[in-house]
Amino acid sequence: GERKCGGERECELSLLSGLVRTVEDISGLKMKGMVIGPLHRNPPDHLEGTRLTEINPELGDHQQLQRVLEAAKRKGVKVILDLTPNYNGVEKGPWFGIDFNQETPDRVSLKEKEAFGFWLDQGIDGLRLGGIDHVMNSSMAVLSEWINLVNNYSTGDKPRVLIGAVTDPNPDPGYIRSLLERSNLDMLFSYYLRSVGNLTAPRGLKLRSLIDDFMLSANHSWASWAVGGRETGHLASLVPENLQRLFHVLLFTLPGTPFTYYGDEIGLKDIEEGGIINKAPPIQRESPAGDNGEGVKISVEDQKVSKTSMYNLFKALSSLRSKERSLMFGDFESLLSEGDVYVYRRLWDQSMRFLVLLNLGEQETEVRLSRPDLPSTATVELSTTQRADTQLSLASLKLGAGEGLLLRYPYTA
């Protein structure tokens, strides 16, 4: 939501007036929702000047927001508003250091519940609150009040959600799991997978442990996954270049909701400006554009017409996840972790089953999947490399360095 660039055209993504086109982009990518903002007035670390119900005029106005919401409704895209109070803050944290166990003047003047109701009345589909761990560690009772408030706005045809976000860009996995175990939020967002790009061998075993432990802590609550984001920057700047596509396969095939940062669909990178890393550079839609440093074209239009582009891989994964029941809400089961390879399965009732094979290493690896509950062969649904074969023997198959492979096979009685 911050204005971090120069001209009007460059700032299009940061301004409400440009978000109508963003809705079109998201719909074209077969994605179902977007998080916008924060939009409200927030002088850094200044509670008295923070106005949770007023849009910062540099970012737009309420009429522009309504146009965004109308466009999103037409396209079936849910809009979540980030309402983290002190999002521009440096010293006082996302919640101005308020102790939610006490009715202090700061606690009273925040008026967060009035703001929740105000934005939900505007037609927002849900709220995202950063620094939610501060609230959870301060008062779970207050968090429960907020959850009930948002739930009271839900109707059969328009459910509302409250997403709590742990915005630490390098969170301790054990800390995230401890929050998950006591969370009653609709969804707890975090950069739990942030460390995966830096894993050392055996990467497959370590990734399996991270994910299995997360699922155990989440129990039956809805999971969410992210690597890139406002706090961490872009995926292409966070993970090795040869694993970027694999990460998209991972995010879209794990159970729960994947969150991706704008521009990750084309491999956009953070840029350095005067010794400062800009994690919100402008996205280039039209050709011509430069490349990302590896010779890969990074304009949206260039990538749309290239069958092997990051954009079209992303779109294919998003489309699959939006229509295949096993990927949408199916069961999850880790099957194999050997060296740098990790394999898991998604299945639901009598729907098509999916095997996800990930090689996080730098060498081609043979994978053997011989189990009584697996068929002898499976069909290639999608690969991060250009495979010529469409049917693979599960008894012995080659998985390329950095390859993410999605296989399917039918239910059998």
From TrEMBL:
SMART domains linked to this entry: Aamy
Ranges for domain Glycosyl hydrolase family 13 catalytic: 12-321
GO cellular component entries: apical plasma membrane; basolateral plasma membrane
GO annotation terms (biological process): carbohydrate metabolic process; L-alanine import across plasma membrane; L-leucine import across plasma membrane; phenylalanine transport
Residue ranges of coiled coil: none
Pfam families named among the record's database cross-references: Alpha-amylase
Molecular function per GO: aromatic amino acid transmembrane transporter activity; L-alanine transmembrane transporter activity; L-leucine transmembrane transporter activity
Matches recorded under InterPro entries: GH, GH13_cat_dom, Glyco_hydro_b, SLC3A2
Full protein name: 4F2 cell-surface antigen heavy chain-like protein
Species of origin: Callorhinchus milii (Ghost shark)
